[in-house]
Amino acid sequence: MYQKQLLISCEDTLHILSLKPPLSNGSRLQVVNLSQNQLKSLPTGLLHLIHLQKLCAANNHLSTLFDIPATVNWIGLRKLEELDVSGNCLISLLTSVMHSLKSLHCLDVSRNKLNAFPDPWACPLKNCKASSNVIENLPNTISIFWRTQLQEVDFSDNCLKELPSYIFELEAIVSLKLCGNLIETLPAPNKWKCSKLKTLDLSRNQLGR
């Protein structure tokens, strides 16, 4: 259970903006909520919060996750389990940051302007929400890194034109939402290995066209 929390939302003052080492290194913050502000990038002080487990920055004006100076070295976010940056203006996700999230369980990047999903990395991702973007293709290593972890996936309301067979090789997946895309065909039946799948939403596509 998260105990050390910092809630910064609505009209609160953004004190977190001043978080810099060694203050942030010594902080035991586990939860930070920056939702519903006017941020264009996340405060770099967050990169030094080594105990942070949950970060919510939904409904801001983020165009990039972090604006990291070349001289900044950081070791935080290794324990981050939940990241919510939905409802922003993100076009891409910084690989250097995403691939450092070794403990990530839940990722919500829905309602942005992403044209691609980042290449998967070694983390125990279980829940991935990326609806309402402009993603055209999915990385072909999803089933390699997250084959036995991913349980809930939402890529609805994007620009996917085809559905790669490896999506159905996710052995732990329970819910797969792909509605509102441009999908015309499905992989051959012998490619379907998702025996735990309970919910499959393919509505509002181009199947049978």
Summarize the helices and strands and which ones pair or pack.
Elements: E1 5-7, H1 23-26, E2 31-33, E3 54-56, E4 82-84, H2 95-98, E5 106-108, E6 127-129, H3 142-145, E7 152-154, E8 175-177, E9 199-201
Parallel strand pairs: 1-2, 2-3, 3-4, 4-5, 5-6, 6-7, 7-8, 8-9
Brief overview:
6% of the residues lie in helices and 13% in strands. With 209 residues, it is mostly beta strands. It folds into two domains: 1-92 and 100-106, Leucine-rich repeat, LRR (right-handed beta-alpha superhelix) (Alpha-Beta Horseshoe); 114-209, Ribonuclease Inhibitor (Leucine-rich repeat, LRR (right-handed beta-alpha superhelix), Alpha-Beta Horseshoe), CATH 3.80.10.10.
Written account of the structure:
The protein is mainly beta. The protein has two domains: 1-92 and 100-106, Alpha-Beta Horseshoe (Leucine-rich repeat, LRR (right-handed beta-alpha superhelix)); 114-209, Leucine-rich repeat, LRR (right-handed beta-alpha superhelix) (Alpha-Beta Horseshoe), CATH 3.80.10.10. It has helices at 23-26, 95-98, 142-145, and strands at residues 5-7, 31-33, 54-56, 82-84, 106-108, 127-129, 152-154, 175-177, 199-201. Strands 1-2-3-4-5-6-7-8-9 form a nine-stranded parallel sheet, with no helix packed on it. Strand 4, helix 2 (95-98) and strand 5 (106-108) form a beta-alpha-beta unit.
